[in-house]
Every structure is written in structure tokens, then in C-alpha cells.
Design a protein that fits this description.
By secondary structure, the chain is of the alpha+beta class. It folds into 3 domains: 163 residues, Beta-Lactamase (2-Layer Sandwich), CATH 3.30.450; 54 residues; 161 residues, Heat Shock Protein 90. The protein has 12 helices and 21 strands. The strands form 6 sheets. Strands 1, 4, 5, 6, 7 and 10 form a 6-stranded antiparallel β-sheet that branches. Strands 16-18-19-21-20 form a 5-stranded mixed β-sheet, with helices on one face. A 4-stranded antiparallel β-sheet has the order 12-11-14-13, with helices on one face. α9 packs antiparallel against α11. It starts with a helix and ends with a strand.
Length: 539
């Protein structure tokens, strides 16, 4: 339990701190949301106020027509419109017009009235329609050069405009159209998204029949709005609001976009702070989306929760560190005692291991001495052979000692043993193979084997004249479980197997077959000797 106390203390304090930081973070987010909701409501109020102002102008024009029973001349309508000063007071209003309502087939009468009022011919177009009613534009202000072509245009032929006009036929309320492109059919290079608002004049309705008998005054007043100008003026009122506004006719969609403000939304906030408002303008549902821009200032810094969390983690770390130091004080005495006992045990094991290794080495040396003596003809030959074999054992022992009795590399072992026989500088290319690590037993046995093979090659083979006649390569087979080593001596002629087996050959066979439990094959070929050694590898 004492060991777990620092961890438990750290986790407990860290959880408390992170919980507090989490509450602070969510409080910050909620404060930002509430502030932005208020900003969005402010922007929406500006938009609705501007739209109400413009629609009030349409109601005033309707009152004028009602007062004159719809009998308004072009001059009177132009004078009324000029007094409004729409450029300064009603930005975004493209104009106000009057549509005459007549049955299809009465186009000639409508065209005569237009000729009388305007002094020039304006045919009703499109010339062909499948609809029951005609609603051409007969009055429009301001009627500048670019707007002359709209006189005579039958709005009832356009599906979007017709839908709003049909709703206006049924009651005395104002009805907005869907999204329309203003400027179409006027020869303008560019069109602008906008909408129209219609209200009826002197049109009486019945369940199935519309009475337009008072043809000279029956029709619809309408106001045309350019969306971009209308909403930019509404949102440009000081102080400027840090919001990106998108206004859609109905549900949000690329085809329904009426307006998008120029200031882009802030990428870091736009995904989290999004305010949606659904409004109704002249009976038409709109969707308004608000996103914060880079100018939107959060009510509190987002760094506060982060700092609070970091402080809590530092505090938890400090408490855990103090607890850890206290734990170590309790453990110090027991660790010292355990270390002392472990050291004594390791020394005893090392001593026993050294005794075992020395005993094995002495046994191996005595065996080599006896066999060497039995084959030697004099003391000098015995001394030379015995010394060379002891040096081979010493080289293997030295490699194991340098690796702390762990593993010896096969390539290094070959290089060392062949260097002792042929000289330290060996030509490149006589040794080739992958890295293979050998344990203690395999190292000692192969060390003597390589020494004996090299000595025989020096005495009896062409390698005595040129070391390049010797090639040694090795590989690992059976998924790393078997070492296959090939010893090749070339350059000799008419090589035959020896009639008598010497001690060196016996020593090689004993090391490979008994010590290492492997196999050895000698192939006395016409131009040299090939020896293949296969031994199992331990993990």
C-alpha cells in the first residue's frame, strides 16, 4: 500500500484539478455562447428593423392607391416616388411597381393603356402563356434607361413570382417571393439575388373565381429588393457587429442563399458558436445563420482552464514527489540489506562458476596434452603443437571474457584463429556470412576446430603458399536453428584422402560431433578440399 500511495495521491489531486479545469472550460464556453447569442439577436433585430422599414413603404404606397381608388397616373406615381428619396433612406430597395391584373387574351387592351401612360409601345411579354391570368408591369419607379424594358413584363409567367402573386390574391397581406435574380431580361451583364413583396389592390376573391372586372385598377403593388444592399446597410450600423451572416430563403442550401456577409467566420470559433434564427418575412420563411468573426472577443480567456489544469497537475506532481521521497526513506534500509545479501550470493555463484570453468579448462588442456604427446616425435614438435592449441583456446577464452562470458561472434572468432595461423592481416573476401553469436561451449569447441583446420591447410594445402586459396562461408538454416559452415581449400592437384587419421582430425571430429552434437563432411576433390560442418544453435 505504501508503494501505491504516491500514485493514488497524484491521481486524486490530478482528478480534482482537471475536474475544476473542466468546469472552468465549460463555463467559459457557455459564457461565450451566451454572449454570441446576444450578438446574433442584435444583428437579427437590425435586419428585421430594416425589412420592416422597407415594407412600411410598400404599405404607404398601398394607402396612396387605395385613397385614389387605384387611379394613379404615371406622373403622380413618379412624383410620389421622388419624394421618398430612396437612395438615402431606403438602400437596397430597387423600386416599386404596379402590376395590372387581366385575363389572358386581353393583351391588346393592356398594351393600349401602357401606350397612353408611357407615350411609347411596350408589348406584353412573354407573348405566349399557358396561364389564365396576365400581370404585366405597367408602372415602375425609378424608371431609368436600364428599367425601360421591364414595362410589359408578365410576372405571372415566372413560377417563383407567380407563387407569391397567387398567395397575394387570396388576402390583403403582403407576400414575399422566393429567391429571384434581379436584372434578368433587361440586357444587364450582371444579375443580383433578391426578392419581391406583393400586395393586392382592388382584387376581389371568391372560392373559385377571381373577379377582375375593375380591370383599370385591379392588380398588385410590389417592391423589389436587392438582397446584398439591403442587408449590408442593416448590418453596417455602428457599432459593427463581429458576426458573419448567411440568409437563406427557406432551409440552408447553396441554391437558396440570399446573402452572405463579406467578413469570413473565424475558423477556431465557427464550428462551436453557431446561432440559427428562423424568421418569417411577408409570409415567407427564412433561415438566418450567424457565426463569429475574428473580431469576436471571448468573455474570458481560454487560457484560464488550461492554466488551472496545469497548476493542478503540478500540485499533484509535487504531492506525489514528496510521498515518493517518504516512501524511499522507508525502503532504503531494506534495500541496503537486500543488496548486501544479493552481493554475497552473487560472489558465491561467481566463485562456483569459476571453479567449474577452471576444472573444465584443466581437463581439456590435459586431454590435448596427452593426445599431442602421443602423436609427437620429439619434445620440440610437442611444444610447438601444444602451444598453438593452447593459444587457440586462449583466443576463444579472451573473446568470451571481453563479452563478459555472454556471446562471441563467429566472424570475429574465425578472423582471430586464422590470423594466428596465417598472420593477422587476412585478405578480403576469404570470410563471408551473416552475424552469428555463439555461446561459451560452441565458441571454445569451434575455436579449436578452426585452429586445427587452419593448421592442416597451412601444412598440406595450397593456403600455405597463398591464403587466398582458402574460402570460408557460413549461413543459418531451419529458421535460425542450424549453422552450416563450408571450408574450401583450392589450388591442389590430385588430392586424395589421407591413409592415417591424425590427432588434429580426431580433435575436429570430437569437437563437432560430441561436443557440439553436429556433423562434419570432408570432400577430397581433384583441385582441393571442401569441409561442411553443420551444428545446432542454442537460443
Amino acid at each position: 500500500m505504501k508503494k501505491l500511495f504516491p500514485i493514488v495521491a497524484f491521481i486524486a489531486v490530478a482528478l480534482i484539478s482537471l475536474t475544476m479545469a473542466g468546469f472552468a472550460y465549460f463555463a467559459t464556453q457557455e459564457a461565450a455562447r451566451i454572449k454570441f447569442e446576444g450578438t446574433a439577436d442584435d444583428a437579427l433585430n437590425r435586419i428585421e428593423s430594416r425589412i420592416d422599414l422597407h415594407l412600411s413603404l410598400l404599405r404607404s404606397t398601398q394607402a396612396l392607391f387605395d385613397a385614389r381608388n387605384g387611379d394613379i397616373t404615371r406622373g403622380e406615381f413618379k412624383a410620389f416616388f421622388a419624394a421618398l428619396d430612396i437612395d438615402d433612406n431606403f438602400a437596397g430597395l430597387r423600386g416599386i411597381g404596379f402590376l395590372r391584373l387581366a385575363k389572358t387574351g386581353d393583351e391588346a387592351t393592356l398594351e393600349r393603356d401602357i401606350l397612353r401612360d408611357h407615350g411609347s409601345a411596350h408589348p406584353v411579354y412573354p407573348a405566349i402563356t399557358q396561364q389564365q391570368w396576365r400581370t404585366p408591369i405597367v408602372l415602375f419607379e425609378p424608371l431609368d434607361t436600364s428599367n425601360q424594358s421591364i414595362i410589359g413584363f408578365d410576372m405571372f409567367t415566372d413560377p417563383v413570382r407567380r407563387a407569391a402573386i397567387e398567395k397575394a390574391m387570396a388576402d390583403d397581406q403582403q407576400h414575399a417571393s422566393g429567391l429571384v435574380q434581379l436584372g434578368q431580361g433587361q440586357g444587364l451583364e450582371q444579375t443580383f439575388p433578391g426578392f419581391l413583396v406583393f400586395v393586392r389592390l382592388n382584387v376581389e376573391t371568391a372560392p373559385d373565381v377571381i373577379n377582375a372586372s375593375r380591370s383599370s385598377t385591379a392588380g398588385f403593388l410590389y417592391a423589389s429588393f436587392r438582397a446584398r444592399d439591403l442587408f449590408q446597410v442593416a448590418l453596417s450600423k455602428a457599432p459593427l457587429l463581429p458576426v458573419n451572416v448567411e440568409i437563406f430563403d427557406g432551409e440552408p442550401g447553396a441554391d437558396n442563399l440570399l446573402f452572405r456577409s463579406e467578413a469570413p467566420p473565424a475558423e477556431s470559433l465557427g464550428g462551436r458558436l453557431l446561432a440559427r434564427r428562423d424568421i418569417v418575412v411577408a409570409g415567407r420563411p427564412w433561415t438566418v445563420l450567424f457565426r463569429p468573426t475574428s473580431a469576436f472577443a471571448l468573455p474570458s480567456s481560454r487560457a484560464i482552464p488550461v492554466m488551472l489544469g496545469l497548476f493542478g497537475l503540478l500540485l499533484a506532481g509535487a504531492i506525489a514527489l514528496v510521498a515518493r521521497y517518504q516512501e524511499r526513506a522507508y525502503e532504503a534500509k531494506s534495500l541496503l540489506h537486500e543488496a548486501t545479501e544479493k552481493s554475497l550470493l552473487e560472489k558465491e555463484l561467481i566463485l562456483q562458476e569459476m571453479k567449474h570453468r577452471i576444472k573444465n579448462s584443466i581437463t581439456r588442456v590435459l586431454a590435448i596434452a596427452r593426445q599431442t604427446a602421443s602423436q609427437a616425435t620429439d619434445v620440440k614438435e610437442f611444444s610447438a603443437s601444444f602451444s598453438a592449441r593452447l593459444q587457440a583456446m586462449a583466443a576463444s577464452q579472451d573473446m568470451l571474457t571481453r563479452s563478459r562470458w555472454q556471446k562471441a561472434d563467429l566472424g570475429d572468432l574465425l578472423h582471430t584463429e586464422l590470423g594466428q595461423v596465417f598472420g593477422k592481416e587476412l585478405p578480403e573476401g576469404i570470410l563471408s556470412g551473416p552475424e552469428v553469436l555463439l555461446d561459451e561451449t560452441t565458441t571454445q569447441a569451434l575455436g579449436l576446430t578452426f585452429h586445427e583446420l587452419a593448421t592442416n591447410a597451412l601444412k598440406y594445402g595450397e593456403a600455405g603458399n597463398s591464403v587466398g586459396a582458402l574460402k570460408v562461408d557460413w549461413r543459418v538454416e531451419e529458421q535460425g536453428r542450424t549453422l552450416v559452415l563450408t571450408w574450401c581449400e583450392t589450388g591442389q592437384e590430385k588430392l586424395e584422402a589421407p591413409a592415417r587419421t591424425g590427432f588434429g582430425t580426431k580433435l575436429i571430429d570430437l569437437n563437432v560431433t560430441r561436443e557440439l552434437r553436429g556433423t562434419i563432411k570432408r570432400d577430397f576433390q581433384a583441385d582441393g578440399l571442401k569441409v561442411e560442418i553443420r551444428i545446432p544453435l542454442t537460443g
